[in-house]
Design brief:
The chain is an alpha/beta fold. The protein contains seven helices and seven strands.
Length: 222
């Protein structure tokens, strides 16, 4: 093979991921103009840094089922797959059929479910899953309809391991008043809520680490 041919192959190999990311971003942006836009947590697929920070919250030495909700085009999924071990089972959940097609193309070795993230008890049971160790969320959970929030809380209470984690991405900076609103929101669903800021991300954001699902969603303060 000549030098010119090798250079063309290298250039094609480098260009392919860039084209894929651009295509994902365009598809993601297109979804903002659909009726389901409120469930999308960001204007673009999340950056690698904030996704890796989410994955760092998992002790991958511990076996268990990992569920990702609202996987979109797979930005968070990639960070999980980089660290997942043979003793894990990864279930990737997405409702949008276009995103589902992308996810099945990108992650053929893992289970991709087209399902409603707020109503997962039956789909997971059908897969033989009785308990979940980690739940990653790329959804704008706080923006879901009230009934959806109640359904999400219900199946988490029933299926999340007592020592498990719900890991939520957010694109709200640390000192934003909105961040404190979200902190209070997740504290209504979980007994233990921490926020880890991620500065090297545009826009700055962070990760909510939530444990110990409450028996009931506590009411909003009066």
């Amino acid at each position: 093979m000549g030098r010119e041919s090798r250079n063309v192959q290298v250039a094609d190999a480098e260009l392919a991921p860039q084209e894929s990311r651009l295509g994902d971003a365009l598809l993601f942006a297109k979804k903002l103009f659909t009726k389901d836009y409120r469930a999308i947590a960001a204007l673009l697929p999340s950056g690698a840094g904030i996704c890796r920070r989410m994955a760092q919250q998992v002790d991958f030495s511990q076996a268990g089922v990992i569920v990702e909700l609202g996987a979109g085009t797979g930005a968070i999924t990639r960070a999980i797959v980089e660290r997942v071990q043979p003793h894990h089972r990864l279930v990737i959940v997405e409702r949008d059929p276009d995103f589902v097609d992308k996810l099945r193309e990108y992650f053929p070795n893992h289970t991709v479910l087209r399902a409603d993230a707020t109503h997962m008890e039956e789909p997971l049971t059908n897969l033989g899953v009785r308990q979940v160790r980690y739940v990653f969320s790329g959804l704008a959970t706080h923006a879901l309809p009230i009934r959806g929030q109640v359904r999400l809380h219900r199946w988490l209470r029933r299926m999340l391991d007592p020592n498990g984690y719900f890991i939520q991405i957010t694109h709200v900076p640390l000192h934003s008043p909105r961040r404190h609103v979200l902190q209070r929101y997740y504290s209504r669903l979980f007994l233990d809520v921490r926020f880890i800021p991620v500065w090297r991300h545009v826009p700055p954001g962070g990760v909510f680490i939530c444990r110990k699902v409450r028996e009931r969603i506590t009411p909003k303060p009066g």
